[in-house]
Design goal:
It is a single chain. This protein is of the alpha/beta class and about 425 residues long. The protein has 14 helices and 18 strands. Strands 7, 8, 9, 10, 11, 12, 13, 14, 15, 16, 17 and 18 form a twelve-stranded mixed β-sheet that branches. It has a six-stranded parallel β-sheet with strand order 3-2-1-4-5-6, with helices on both faces. Helix 5 links the parallel strand 5 and strand 6. Helix 1 crosses helix 12 and helix 13 runs antiparallel to helix 14. The longest helix is centred in the C-terminal third of the chain and has 21 residues. About 45% of the residues are buried.
């Protein structure tokens, strides 16, 4: 039986999952491939800690070159994460003619263009299904089954940590800090959760989705990114009263030769399927001109779902190798010379509906001044809610607007926040309820 030898960089949680899957389902994979997948080397700085899986003697090494330079290894799986040394290792593996599989969305979001070009020059493959949505097979579907569609929108709940926090805040009525601590205790959030809760991880994933859906190169710095740390239980409760839930949403929309690319807390209607995505689960909604709206849902992270996606990519490359072909599909689904640079629409030009919460002194004339400032900036009020006076003599005033330009809203809020009766910076959350 033919044997395809694999090298693994990184023996953390996901790496252990890959070993577990290859061991448990080896016979199944042989039945599907007609060949044996053999894990020849695993490189990691720590080869003594028990990962809960066993490997053959001599497989573990601290010398990365035993993976990158071994002529018998055809496929290298990169699960180190981060930018460096992952970038250098991947480029060296490519230079040595090895196919690459990675779950590293940060690496591809920042250095993807360089890596894709190197792979094209050497005629090797690079696949990264596990980089977006864990075990959800959305990238292969965009490149494959839905390749005949022009996509108009891509919306995603792409970070399990944020979705868990917002779900618990909605369910239990507690504030961000308390739920974050619980998430850290349960292992759903890192000790330093910045990449997750500030939306950076979601922006990395949106980079890849935009590239595959719209055939464009996207600079991470061009994606407007906001996290969830400013969301309070007060906002969650007001959203419920208005018929919405708050989710950290990745949003990509095609507008001619420009695209919207943004990550921020978003209110979506409670009867919309994305609103029912709770806990650590992820979901991605795509709209194609022929297929219409399609939603993918599943476990977006974790050992086993991510390992499933990684091995799916291994099987895809192995089948190509056995058939004597390579690069049957370009990394982004478009021919390399057809990937272009679409302009990212400036955030100030975005048109949306808005939820705005003010904390104001309860006295005559306050509402008139707020509504006057909004009207002067061409912002129309759809509805308003004011609660009873608190012990501090201030009240939250919540306004829901009709569609308005972001720059107009920001201008009005700067004026309103300067009024002496406003006691803290206003809080703004965008609303997406026109989702077709």
């Amino acid at each position: 039986m033919k044997e395809i030898k694999i090298g693994l960089l990184g023996f953390g949680t996901i790496g252990a999952g890959v070993v577990k899957l290859l061991t448990k389902n080896s016979a199944l994979l042989e039945e599907k491939l007609g060949a044996r997948l053999s894990l020849k080397k695993i490189a990691d700085l720590d080869i003594t800690t028990d990962r809960g899986v066993s490997v053959e003697p001599g497989v573990l090494t601290t010398n990365v070159d035993e993976v990158l330079c071994d002529p018998e290894i055809s496929i290298v799986i990169e699960l180190i994460g981060g930018y460096e040394p992952a970038r250098s290792f991947v480029l060296k593996a490519i230079a040595n003619g090895k196919h690459i599989i990675t779950a590293n969305k940060a690496l591809l979001a920042v250095h993807g263009e360089e890596i894709y070009a190197a792979a094209a020059q050497k005629g090797v493959e690079i696949l990264f299904e596990a980089a977006v949505g864990g075990g959800i097979p959305v990238l292969s579907a965009i490149k494959g089954n839905m390749a005949g569609n022009n996509f108009s929108t891509v919306l995603g709940i792409l970070n399990g940590t944020c979705n868990y926090i917002l779900s618990k805040m909605t369910q239990d009525g507690v504030d961000f800090a308390e739920v974050l601590q619980t998430a850290q205790e349960l292992g759903y959030a890192e000790a330093d959760p910045t990449f997750d809760v500030e939306g950076i991880d979601t922006a990395h994933k949106l980079c890849l989705l935009l590239s595959l859906c719209f055939g464009t190169r996207v600079d991470l710095k061009d994606i407007s990114t906001e996290g969830i740390s400013s969301i309070s239980a007060v906002d969650i409760n007001f959203a419920r009263d208005f018929g919405y839930k708050i989710k950290l949403l990745a949003i990509g929309k095609r507008d001619g030769e420009r695209i919207e690319a943004r990550v921020h807390p978003t209110m979506i209607p409670v009867n919309y399927p994305l609103a029912d995505v709770n806990g650590v689960f992820n979901a991605i909604r795509l709209t194609g001109d022929f297929v219409g709206p399609v939603m993918f849902y599943g476990r977006g992270a974790g050992m086993e779902p991510t390992a499933s996606a990684v091995i799916g990519d291994v099987v895809d490359i192995a089948r190509n190798m056995l058939a004597g072909i390579s690069r049957r599909s370009a990394p982004l689904g478009y021919l390399d010379d057809r990937v272009k640079k679409l302009t990212i629409k400036p955030m100030g030009e975005i048109v949306s509906k808005y939820y705005i919460r003010f904390n104001a002194v309860d006295r005559p004339g306050v509402l008139a001044k707020i509504s006057g400032a909004l009207g002067a900036s061409n912002i129309s009020i759809e509805s308003m809610m004011q609660t009873a006076r608190s012990a501090s003599e201030t009240v939250p005033i919540v306004i829901m607007t009709h569609e308005a330009r972001e720059m107009d809203v920001r201008k009005a809020l700067a004026e309103i926040d300067a009024f002496d009766f406003i006691k803290e910076k206003s809080n703004l959350i965008r609303i997406e309820d026109n989702l077709e």
